[in-house]
Amino acid sequence: MLLTSAVALGDEAQLKQWEKMDRCSNAAFIAVKILEESADTSKQALALHGAVEGLKTNTKLKEATPTGNEVIGAYNFALRISYEMPRPFAKREHDWLIAQAATACTLWVPSVGAQ
C-alpha cells in the first residue's frame, strides 16, 4: 500500500511539472510574439496587458493556460536576452528565444496556481 501511495504522489508531482512546462511554453510563445510585433516598449506593455487579460477568459487551453505571472516572467526574460536582436526574428532565433523564455519561466516563476 505504501509503495502504491508513493507512485501516485510521484505521478501527481510529475503531472504538475508537465502542466507548468505547458503553461510556460505557451507563455513564452505569447511573449516572443509581443516582442516581434513592435520594438516600442509602450506598445509591448499594452499588448502584454491585453494578453494577460485575454487569458483570464480563454477556455481553449484548459490546464495549459499560462498565469499572468508566467506570461510576464517569460516576457521579461525574453526582452532582456533579445535586446540587441534584429526584429522580426529569424526562424532559428524565434524558436531559440521561445525555448529560453519557457525554460526561465519553468525554473524561476513560482507556481501560484493556474488561472
TrEMBL record:
Q: Which domain of life is it from?
A: Bacteria
Q: In its UniProt entry, what is this protein called?
A: Uncharacterized protein
Q: Which organism is it from?
A: Pseudomonas lactis
